[in-house]
């Protein structure tokens, strides 16, 4: 079982990677499949020759800026980052539940405003479905006792989500693109 903080990290990384690049990070896929993450030749070369020039495998700034922008919108409207960074272990369940309800409502409004989502499969959950030949494994994940070749019958456990439209506001100019939430100083 993967720990909660790792699952949360994977969830955010996958969300923003899907939003900006349209794919799940390879290391997350490998970790979830139980396959060890391979060390890239660039990383191996960098360790072997620390003074050698490094090849950058960083994504272009635009997708990264858009991921930060989406996180900033969740923070601005729903205070999501504040909530996730807070140690909630000392709060009683009732107080935590009330806070989560408000955060959920506000973050849902952010999704509704900036992203159009639709289910990947339109059937109801816990109902029988048939996975066709040639299905997209990025869109449909087979779980349980997977044997044989498609078409495969099973029970739909989660309908999945796909983004069909993104209407984010214009990015700010300058260094503000990396800011999720500005620090606030009250002048007395």
How would you describe this structure to a colleague?
The model is unreliable at 35-56 (pLDDT under 50). The protein starts with a helix and ends in a 22-residue tail after the last strand. The strands form two sheets. It has a two-stranded antiparallel sheet with strand order 1-4. It contains six helices and four strands, in the order H-H-H-H-H-H-E-E-E-E. 43% of the residues lie in helices and 10% in strands. It is globular.
Task: Looking at this protein, list some descriptive labels.
two-stranded antiparallel ribbon; 4 strands; 188 residues; mainly alpha; 6 helices; 43% helix; globular
What does the secondary structure layout of this molecule look like, with pairings?
Blueprint: H1 4-21, H2 26-33, H3 41-48, H4 61-78, H5 80-85, H6 93-114, E1 115-119, E2 128-131, E3 152-155, E4 161-166
Antiparallel strand pairs: 1-4, 2-3
Helix pairs in contact: 1-4, 4-6
């Amino acid at each position: 079982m993967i720990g909660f903080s790792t699952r949360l990290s994977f969830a955010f990384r996958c969300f923003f990677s899907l939003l900006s690049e349209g794919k799940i990070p390879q290391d997350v896929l490998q970790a979830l499949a139980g396959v060890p993450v391979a060390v890239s030749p660039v990383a191996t070369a960098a360790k072997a020759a620390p003074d050698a020039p490094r090849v950058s495998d960083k994504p272009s700034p635009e997708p990264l800026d858009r991921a930060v922008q989406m996180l900033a919108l969740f923070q601005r409207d729903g205070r999501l980052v504040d909530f996730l960074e807070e140690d909630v272990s000392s709060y009683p369940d009732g107080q935590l539940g009330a806070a989560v309800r408000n955060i959920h409502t506000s973050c849902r409004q952010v999704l509704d405003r900036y992203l159009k989502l639709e289910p990947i499969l339109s059937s109801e959950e816990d109902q029988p479905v048939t996975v066709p030949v040639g299905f997209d494994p990025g869109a449909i994940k087979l779980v349980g006792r997977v044997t044989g070749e498609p078409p495969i019958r099973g029970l739909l456990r989660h309908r999945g989500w796909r983004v069909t439209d993104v209407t984010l506001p214009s990015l700010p100019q300058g260094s503000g693109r990396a800011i999720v939430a500005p620090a606030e100083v009250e002048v007395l």
